[in-house]
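Most newcomers find our protein records easier to grasp once they have seen one. Sequence and backbone structure share a record, each on its own labelled line. Nothing more is needed to start thinking about how sequence determines fold. As an example, a complete record with its sequence and its structure tokens follows.
=====
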Amino acid sequence: MMSYSNIKTFFLVISFLLLGSTSCKKDVAGPKGDAGTPGKKGNLKQSERSFTVQASSWINNSGFWTANVYFPEITTDVLSKGEVKVYMKIGTQWWSLPYAVGDIMMHQTFEFEYLHLEYSKIHGIPPSSPGQVTFRVMILQPV
């Protein structure tokens, strides 16, 4: 009669033998398929522009800072059928607006030919001026 430790050793040896005898098979790619049909021409035209708002251009507006940027690319078609995306550069990274850290927020609004930027603090005293800030605006306009 086998002891418990011999049975345990026997099953361990069998388990290792079974694991060692199985092999992995690498999948091989099949033949390449036919090329798909080209997509349709899109219905939006994309344009972008970067600019910097100087520290002296921010206006203190009773607790928040604003900058109004003339942007003739923001047309009635863009406002009604297109899209405007605004990004702010922080260090070497671009961040989409609205952007918030803690209780400080930078956000934007649009009207015909104008981009309005607002820098504010959600709670407490107004924030200090945002200083010089670089923005990138991407406009997706109907064709």
